[in-house]
Amino acid sequence: MELEAALRTSKWEERVPGKRKADSESVAGQDNSGSRFKKAKLDDATEEIGGKKGKKETKDKKDKKEKKDKMVKKVKKVRRTKEEKKEMKEKKAKMELMYQLGGISKK
């Protein structure tokens, strides 16, 4: 009994962590229009309009992911083996020789 009466006093409630004034029994004449009630009303209002906001956020996340994917693709280089490099050089030399002889035209 005495402990409950002590818990109801405003000084004691300020010292107890995790205990809110609004959670305790309401005192006569106390208005329950505290900030958390106002916040709840604001949340309800944003939920009604909030459909657009949610879609915009997901679109932004998608765009960021696409940009990141593009950056990763730019960084990746094609690794060629020594044989492939040698083949490419031979092919290039052959094309250059054909061009010099007049067999083909350069693009």
UniProtKB/TrEMBL annotation:
Residues 1-91 are annotated as: Disordered. Residues 10-24, 57-69, 81-91 have a biased composition (Basic and acidic residues). It comes from the Eukaryota. Residues 70-80 have a biased composition (Basic residues). This is Uncharacterized protein.
